[in-house]
Structures are given as C-alpha cells and as structure tokens.
Amino acid sequence: MISVHDHIKIGSFIFDGMDQIDLTGPFEVLSRLPNATIRLYGVTREPVRDVNGLRIVPDGAFSDAPALDVLHVPGGFGQEGLMENEKVLAWMRRQAAGARGVFSVCTGALLLGAAGLLKGCRATTHWASFHLLPFFGATPVNQRVVVDGTWVFAAGVTAGIDGALCLAAELRGEAVAQEIQLYMAYAPEPPLNSGTPETAPAEILEQVRKSTAAITKLREVTARCIAARLGITATAAN
Fold first, then answer.
1. Which among 106, 121, 166, 225 is annotated as catalytic?
2. 106 given a catalytic annotation
3. What is the pTM of this model?
C-alpha cells in the first residue's frame, strides 16, 4: 500500500479500435482514488475511436507522459495494429520499469507481451486470446483477475472493473477500494449466465468464436512471430 501522502500518477494508454470499457470501467474506479490523478495518453494527441465508434480524446501523446506510478493498458481489436510499433513498445518498457504497478485489461496483456514484459508472469487475458499467452513467456491463469506482485491482469472487458478494484486495494488499502465499490453500487447480478465459455450455451459460444475467428487467427500469427523474436519456445495453451 502507498501512503496517502504520496501522490499517484496513473496513465492509461488509448488507441483506435480499443474497447472503451477496458478504459472507462477502470477509470471509474481509479479516478476516485484519493491523492491520485489519471490521464489518457494516445499514440498521438488526436482523438481516437473505440471499436464501436465512441470518440475519446487523450490528454496527450504517450511521448508527453511523465514517469508513471501506474501504467494501464486496455485491449480491443485495435491492439493488433500496435504489436510491432517499437516506439509504443519501448515506451511501455520504460514506464513499466519505473512503475509501482502495471495493469492490463483484456488483450492489453498482448501489448505488454509484445514489449517482452510478460516473461515469467502469471497472467490472463480475454478468453478468445488466452491460449496465446505462452508465446509471450507468460504462465496463463484462467481467472477473472490475476495478481502477480505489482502487476494486475484482468480478463475480458468488464473484468477491468474487478481488476481496478484489486489495484485500488493494493495502492490505497482495502477500505478505500470498498468505499469506491459501494459508491459505484458495483454488485453485479447478471440476468443471464453466459459470461464465460464454461457457462455459455454451446451454440452461443460457437457463434462468438466464429465472429472473432479472423482477429484470433491474426493474433496467433503475430504472437508466433513475436515469440521467435523474443527467443521463446512455446505452444498454445489449452
């Protein structure tokens, strides 16, 4: 836990084609931390659009960011286009090296993996890309949130809220995280039980697998190339 007297600088990396809730879910939590600021940093200073077209304006380009205490990396289909962007990956490496915490949501974990930052980590990501984690040197853990030291990994999309609450507890203590959760009235009671591959009806799972097949295949090709670049010998997880 960090003393409340110490200011915490949190930076969220945003990009075209991200999934906005990977950003806005954690933002709802982390923006409520006492004595902390959260800023959005893009590839450039230009607005981005999420995978469904929502326009989001960054506070600055990633090159404008100070040394961050917490690096937050969302995911989404647009992650694939940044996997070989060495300027972005080098920035993530620099920020992670000095951060008190690193937090990925969904396929944001793959961006950290492309930067060579997942070697030896216990991690998770969206279920459709979970099998790719070994190509980045990570140990895949099939949990909604995985905490490995000062690193927090949240699985798909809405898991970012859960991960952010875990991170809030690590940064400012459990009582603060509980206060934030209560203020948000975050007590999920989903009307359906189709939120994981294990609980979804087989026909629904198959349909969603088909809808994500193209991006999943592309991600695997990229992951294998990055594994070769990083000198990692691995096979896809089950």
1. 106
2. yes
3. 0.96
